[in-house]
Model the fold of this input.
Amino acid sequence: MFLSAGFLYGLGAAIAFALADPGAAFLSRRMGALAATLLVAIAGLPLIALGTLVYNEPLATSLSSTLVALLLGIGAAISYVGLYYAFAVGPLSVVGPITAMFGTVTVLFAVLFLGERLTIAETAAVIIAATGSVLAAIEIKSSGMIKFIGLGPLAAMGAVLLGSAITVMMQHPIRTDGWVPTVIAVRIGVAITACVALFAVSRFWPGMAGLDSPGNGARLPKRFVALIALIGWFDAIAFSSIAIGLSAAPAWLVGIVAATSPIVLLFGGLVILHERLQPLQWVGVTFVFCSMGIIAFG
Done:
């Protein structure tokens, strides 16, 4: 029974992330990763707070639990900023498949830190996904030298590693204190961290590419407030779906299903932004999605 629950909540998260991430990529390219992270985190808080009515959970529990969740929020903020920075500098057609590694890394962390078990097929899938993510993020020059395709893929890899760790570490406080107070505190931690970082960057490194807005001309007009709210709501739904899934199902299952959303970014980069993949990156993309199929259906 718990497998079906984990699959459904993971699928809900995947759909919500698929709806939120293209908009987040747009915001990141217009406003910078820090401002996008801050606004998305704030916009989603009211929707998460409604969970206290539906699930009969408090908005907050003990001070110690809240502090732990706030600390997790710092890590989550760094992961969000890394992901949104990757969205900002691209290329999305490479960044998208790399973020699909979230599922396999979550599997690995769940085994190492939560004692969850992997089958032989799942172990092979983790290795395939890791290999595919590296292949999708590199290019081989005519001289034979291997280099990463800009900072976007590297930022995406860092965001995946940290985000997977935060996901696994959230399971205990969620099961102990409830998902609503845990997620609210984590998201507040994200907002506070992004706000402080945004102030520091705008004060000392104004116009820093990918992190801060390059100038007043890149600021979003007021009519985009509704768009920001919508992105925040979808992201909050995705975050909450993962949290609810963690309360009832293995972390590896929730993570691997939730990781199916990046296929939208892949096609967005190819179709909308007219990005092109080299043969080696196509091999990497194929590896990543094959590994997801092995874990989900193998």
Q: What stands out?
A: The chain has 13 helices and two strands. The CA atoms of residues 247 and 258 lie 15 Å apart. The two ends are 18 Å apart (CA to CA).
